[in-house]
């Protein structure tokens, strides 16, 4: 009887230990289902931010032992297009302005839609290459406002943004989507600073574009 009682006590201890081990594992699995939103635009910095998130964050949040029907998208790729100002279009420096015809407006919208689709297709492929489930979202409006609204509506756990590498003066005058979101988003915000070579490449592209104008 004593041996049996001792065995029962040991069994109870084992069961208690298993419960203590299982409880933290459940908590870890819940944390692993964190929803991440990554803002995507035309800049190399935004794609570098996505790559950084896939390389450094996803390994720690990929859900394990979760039924497929209960899985939610781990990463939401959001792209915000600014409304097309179609009322007046300047013809050029010193030139007269003119009203955009419906055909011009439609042409611009189609080009914009193709560009948006290409951006998100590239981003989705990056996620697919890492075997990470992702969804895309296209919004229209002021990027900084729409991104903050989306994080709140979708109950995002972490917002990841790229940095365009603006200087202090430009940032003071032009502002920054990443700076705005860092102060106004209702969730933690991670701003990924690009390497110097990406910043230089983006800067050179901007100078070339201004020279062409």
TrEMBL record:
InterPro entries with a match to the protein in the record: Rossmann-like_a/b/a_fold, Universal_stress_UspA, UspA
Any Pfam family: Usp
Record-linked CDD domains: USP_At3g01520-like
N-terminal signal peptide: none
Domain of life: Eukaryota
Gene3D superfamilies the UniProt entry points to: HUPs
Domain UspA residues, every copy: 34-193
Annotated PANTHER family: ADENINE NUCLEOTIDE ALPHA HYDROLASES-LIKE SUPERFAMILY PROTEIN
Name of the protein this chain belongs to: UspA domain-containing protein
The organism of origin for this protein: Populus trichocarpa (Western balsam poplar)
